[in-house]
# Entry
Amino acid sequence: MSAFDGYGKEVCRVCASSATDPAKAERMSFQNLYAARKSITSLFGFNLADGLASDDWGIALGCFQKRHLVAHKMGVVDQDYIERTGDNLAIVGHKIGINEDEVRELVRIVGQLGEYLSAKCQEQGE
# Structure
């Protein structure tokens, strides 16, 4: 996901001149998809989530929240995770589960998000 963050930052940097606030576009972050979608909508006028089927957007949000748990909470589920994802199988205080199929699916989804972001930002500059 840090590769997607770096890719998204670079796309926004290159397209910053077409943003409503070029300086803010150059400082974009894609670690949090909720915040990234809001910023992209404000800066470039399109919804990042429109690049995916609604189920795929939900999967991406959940996986990014899992990444947050692993990176910042040692993989331990907190109430914020449950509220943000609606994951009714997760238990506060327990480790979050991550499986191989989920990772593969996220790789596919993040690839689509990257392609959509790049295409839409290029359209903005035309």
Observations:
- Residues 100-125 form the longest helix (26 residues).
- The CA atoms of residues 34 and 61 lie 8 Å apart.
- Helices lie at 2-14, 22-25, 33-44, 54-73, 79-85, 100-125.
